[in-house]
Specification:
alpha+beta; tRNA_endonuc-like_dom_sf; UPF0102_YraN-like; Restrct_endonuc-II-like; 5-stranded mixed sheet; single chain; 35% strand; YraN family protein; 3 helices; 34% helix; globular
Length: 114
């Protein structure tokens, strides 16, 4: 499988996981010129902006390294762009998350990682 196919499969697992936890998926691959947020979901008055990483743990996996300063800044800018487009979301609490999909198709959810 190529990297794109693996990534799409990982995002599908991530969406299924989030829905099983009571999230409503609002957007997948929400893109702006400045960046992208893989999944934007809503759960209990919290807007979750999630990055999905499908990663082979044999190569080592360090969640904080996946969301380096540049990636975090881009996610924030995309989030603020979303708020400009949909002002009704302003009142929600926001959580920036990471979903790690393992080679065994397990989902590890890191909430409010930054």
């Amino acid at each position: 499988m190529n990297k794109t196919t693996i990534g799409k499969l990982g995002e599908r697992f991530a969406c299924e996981f989030l829905e099983s936890q009571g999230h409503t998926i609002l957007f997948q691959n929400y893109r702006k010129r400045i960046g992208e947020i893989d999944i934007i979901s809503l759960q209990n008055e919290t807007l979750h902006c999630s990055e999905v990483k499908t990663w082979n743990e044999k190569n080592g996996f360090f969640p904080k390294e996946c969301l380096h300063v540049t990636k975090r800044d881009r996610m924030r800018k995309v989030y603020f762009s979303l708020l400009q487009e949909i002002p009704a979301l302003y009142h929600l609490t926001t959580s920036f998350n990471l979903l790690h999909i393992t080679e065994k198709k397990e989902v590890r959810f890191y909430s409010s990682i930054f």
